[in-house]
Design goal:
Elements (H helix, E strand, L loop, with lengths): L1 H26 L9 E7 L5 E7 L7 H9 L5 H56 L3 H6 L1
Antiparallel strand pairs: 1-2
Length: 142
């Protein structure tokens, strides 16, 4: 379980790098920097980092910011397809980051609970061996 948790942390880091190096980098290049909306990274209280659309003037975030940008007649038609593609990539990456983070957290919690169960079990076997003078492994085999 600990190996799975570590693998998930590594995958999450890789997904965050992909989000930053590809999607966020594209959104922060000309001509997208001329728009009143930016794509930004937002860290949650759980420690995950997601891509969000943010209106520059109000700092309002969310898909409604992106929707309003696409609906705005001032947004050049030549950017619509790329903005749609960036939103698709953002949604897919955020979903993958969320899933990998959750699986990693669950695996780490599971490993901790398994270690606790092992400690209780070992403690009980040690009690048995001390009270009977028999090795716990010998008793288990018979």
């Amino acid at each position: 379980m600990l190996q799975l948790a570590e693998l998930c942390r590594s995958l999450e880091a890789d997904l965050n790098a992909l989000a930053e190096d590809q999607v966020l980098a594209q959104a922060n290049r000309h001509p997208y920097t001329l728009l009143p909306v930016r794509m930004v990274r937002q860290r949650t209280s759980a420690g995950t980092v997601f891509l969000r659309w943010q209106e520059m003037g109000t700092r309002q975030m969310g898909v409604t910011v992106w929707s309003s940008l696409l609906a705005d007649p001032r947004t050049p038609e030549s950017l619509l397809q790329d903005l749609h593609s960036m939103e698709q990539q953002r949604v897919a990456l955020n979903m993958q980051i969320s899933l990998v983070h959750t699986i990693g957290r669950q695996a780490a919690e599971c490993a901790e609970k398994m270690a606790q169960a092992d400690a209780v079990y070992s403690g009980r076997l040690q009690q048995i061996s001390q009270s009977s003078g028999i090795s716990p492994h010998t008793q288990k085999e018979s």
